Amino acid sequence: MDDATIYAFATAPGRAGVALLRLSGPHAAAALRALAGRLPTPRRALVTRFSDPRNGELIDRGIALYFPAPHSLTGEDVAEIHVHGGRAVAAALLEALAAQPGLRLAEPGEFSRRAFLNGKLDLTEAEGIADLVAAETAAQRRQALRQMAGEAGRLYEGWRARLLRAQARVEAEIDFPDEGLPADLAAAVATQLSEIKGEITTFLADNHRGERLRDGLAIAVLGPPNAGKSSLVNALARRDVAITAATAGTTRDVIEVALDLAGFPVTLADTAGLRDSSDAIEEEGVRRARARAASADLKLVVVDATKPEEKNSLMAMIDSDAVVVANKMDLAPRDDAAWTDALGAAPAVKISVTTGTGMTTLEARLGTEIARRFGGESAPLITRARHRQALEVACAALGRYPRAGAAELAAEELRQAVRALGRITGRVGVEDLLDVVFREFCIGK
Ligand code: GDP
Predict the structure, then answer these.
(1) 362: Cβ below 6 Å to ligand 1?
(2) Distance CA 445, CA 439 (A)
(3) Co-location of 220 and 369 in the same domain
């Protein structure tokens, strides 16, 4: 870590009521004093004038805050300057700071990086901050908050601490075979390790809920041509759009729209109509639609309530991951629509995109299905592939442990599991192992 003092606006550029600039590092206090004329009492807001120290010109009036190390965001001396959010104010402030000795602009993520290096955050908490800033739905915000508060980190650290204790015992046996360790110790360690492995395995079998919550649940919209799929996607998007406008998918015939449905992020994929075709291009579209359906978390099968003859081409699509929608109820005589009741296990939701009938019911139904797929929000979720990979590595090593044979080989499997878990939170190092050894065993004094 270099010891430069870094500074950057924490707020987005452009016009705003307030802009916040942060400084972190050994020169933060001197820089703030140079601009504000004096240093605020630690952690107390000071209303002050900020002037360019080179010529005394007033830049703006605002609030100054000072957080001396180590009780600060980064663990270093941190200064905060709150000014009015305007481009000229920001430019003048940045220019004045650039002229100060020992200061440079912060790189992306550098404040959090310093906080991590100073032990203020573990890696999962740092990732939680990134996720919170990126969160676009209520469920994403809740997940990010939990991770930021260290819930995931504590779980991983808990497993690692238990593994470290087991490792200390196994290694003590290798290093001090004559110390007379209890005979049943090996069996106790093996039992404990298989318990931990079981807990991690259960945790891994989460249907990728956490990753889905970050990336959005995939919903494929399927059905025959002209059933009203595009109209339905547009209607849902207009009512619920909270994330972004429609973006064209990778193919001409799959359009994706990101939405906030019932507080959860979803990606609706509007596919080509499903029907048997001799046209090569249409066939390709249908093939892609089927592929999308296969990989989707949920299928929204749209049928035209006035066309019972289309029923056959759809039946293969309808399973427990499908919500069937009978559209164009405004055109369907009561008898005509009756056929849709027989599609799949759950009754079809009868709607008319044109008149809006049934749309509220459909959204409620989708909300229930989506919430069920994200599951309860009690346990911290795996939010990143790197966490999952590390947990899998740890699990695999623990699985090999009982078959490792020689104590040295078994110990190496344990070491691998501990290292893998340590990589998730970023707390790796032999120091903790030494601590455990000396605290628990007091060998050799
Ligand atoms: P897609 O091929 O499945 O995407 O179907 P579209 O969304 O393009 O709709 C096909 C036609 O059906 C369009 O002319 C729509 O205006 C019409 N349509 C869609 N929904 C309804 C509805 O609820 N009632 C009526 N009467 N027409 C609808």
Answers:
(1) no
(2) 11
(3) yes
Question: Which among 374, 393, 421 is the end of a domain?
Answer: 374
Task: Tell me how far the alpha carbon of residue 353 lies from the centroid of ligand 1, in angstroms.
Answer: 8
Residue 247 confidence (pLDDT): 39
Count: domains in the chain: 3
Q: What is the distance in A from the centroid of ligand 1 to the CA of 328?
A: 7
The confidence score (pLDDT) of residue 71 equals: 95
pLDDT score of 255: 74
3-state secondary structure of 320: coil
User: Is residue 230 located within the same domain as residue 166?
Assistant: no
Q: Are residues 238 and 366 in the same domain?
A: yes
Find the 134 Cα to ligand 1 centroid distance in Å.
35
Task: Determine which residue's CA is closest to atom 20 belonging to ligand 1.
Answer: 228
The CATH number of the domain holding residue 292 is 3.40.50.300
Pairing of strands 264-270, 103-105: unpaired
Are residues 101 and 186 both part of a single domain?
no
- Parent domain of 364: 215-374
Ligand 1 pocket mutation pick from 226, 229, 231 by most atoms within 8 angstroms of CB: 231
- Look at residue 250 in the predicted model and tell me its pLDDT: 34
Distance in angstroms (rounded) separating the CA atoms of residues 100 and 21: 15
Taking the mean position of all CA atoms in its chain, how far away is CA 345? 34
pLDDT in tens, 353-396: 999 999 999 999 999 998 888 766 566 678 888 889 899 999 99
Residues 222 and 173 in one domain: no
Choosing from 348, 374, 400, the residue where a domain stops is 374
- Which residues of the chain are modeled with pLDDT < 50? 240-252, 430, 433-434, 436-445
Ligand 1 in reach of 357 Cβ (< 6 A)? no
Residue 313 confidence (pLDDT): 73
Note the pLDDT of residue 242.
35
Q: Based on the domain organization, do 241 and 310 belong to the same domain?
A: yes
Q: Rounded to an integer, what distance in angstroms lies between the CA atom of residue 53 and that of residue 105?
A: 18
| Residue nearest atom 10 of ligand 1, based on CA coordinates | 226
Shared domain check, 153 and 98: no
Ligand 1 centre distance from Cα of residue 228 (Å): 4
Q: Which residues contact 182 (CB under 8 A, 6 or more apart)?
A: none
Looking at ligand 1, which atom is closest to the CA of residue 233? 7
Please tell me whether residues 148 and 232 are part of one structural domain.
Answer: no
Phi-psi sector, 185: left (phi>0), alpha (psi -120 to 50), beta: alpha
Q: Is the CB of 230 under 6 A from ligand 1?
A: yes
For position 123, what pLDDT does the model report? 85
d(CA 213, CA 383): 8
CATH at residue 137? 1.20.120.430
Residue 133: how many other CB atoms lie within 10 Å: 8
Please report the pLDDT score of residue 68 as a whole number. Answer: 97
Specify the pTM. Answer: 0.69
Residue closest via CA to ligand 1's atom 11 equals 226
